[in-house]
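ESCALATION

Customer reports they have been waiting on this structure for their group meeting. Please prioritize. Original submission:
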Amino acid sequence: MGIDTERIEGAIRELLIGIGENPEREGLVDTPQRVARMYSEIVSGFDLDPNEIMQTQFNEGHQEMVVVRDVPFYSLCEHHLLPFFGKASVAYIPQGHVVGISKLARTIDVFAKRPQLQERMTSQVADSIMSGVKPQGVAVILRAEHLCMAMRGIRKPGSSIITSAMRGVFESSARTRSEVLALLREEQG
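Update from on-call: job pushed to the front of the queue and completed.
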């Protein structure tokens, strides 16, 4: 899927006219190009393959929980095209082979950099790691603030939306689920 920057530029010119602005005004003359470049960056997740990201794995014989927490992400609400942003935490229990921690963060970015729903993104990250790493289980928790809720409509800035996806042993074992949730609640030192 390619980004059609010319089409975006035309749409932004029309948007500016639609809100009563003059797209030829000094401060706005380059806005369509800037917005097209911005969208090329913030929806670049379509050009990335999460399966390729998970290719680099290491056979360490490790079968204990691995947690990466508070990974910042920025996404775009597909309903209003306004940002939502927050932090993601991922835990997995390998079956002998591990994936680099940066690969988990990159997987989050693949799905964040698309028009998105937080609920869907949470599941996509979990399913991608399950498919790519084949661990005993995966837990993904996203906490985000949605500007579509903060600056329009109900106008409740500071509200957090929390979503989770549990797969494998995190879904089937209450003890394992409790352990990961306790680790994710711990204050950082």
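Sent to customer with the following note: DSSP finds eight helices and seven strands in the chain.
Escalation resolved.
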